[in-house]
């Protein structure tokens, strides 16, 4: 072996989905802490907020089951 390496770059197989702009995010996960008006597009982001701000226990997916079901129905109707 001569100690030389020859790397051939491959073209990307798929392109990444573009990041959603601030105004495109549907913020349906609301913080239920008294006086807090924050809302988030994902349950994970809501739970990060609740943990960092000490706004009570983490929310569970079951708490938002009906809300997500109604959201899917609305999206289907569009």
Task: Describe, in plain words, how this protein is organized in 3D.
The chain has a domain at 22-73. The protein has 2 helices and 2 strands. It is 31% helix and 5% strand. Strands 1-2 form a two-stranded antiparallel ribbon. By secondary structure, the protein is mostly helical. The model has no long low-confidence stretch (mean pLDDT 90).
Provide the fold topology.
Elements: E1 29-30, E2 39-40, H1 43-53, H2 65-77
Antiparallel strand pairs: 1-2
Beta-strand residue fraction: 5-15%
- Walk across the major sheet and give the strand order: 1-2
* N-to-C CA distance: 62 Å
> Nearest-angstrom radius of gyration?
21 Å
Task: Tell me roughly what share of residues is in helical segments.
Answer: 25-40%
What is the quaternary state of this protein?
single chain
Largest sheet: 2 strands, antiparallel
Q: State the shape.
A: elongated
The ordered string of helix (H) and strand (E) elements is EEHH
> What does the average pLDDT come to?
90
Number of helices: 2
Short description:
The protein has 78 residues and is mainly alpha-helical. The protein has 2 helices and 2 strands; from the N terminus they run ββαα. The protein is elongated and about 70 Å long.
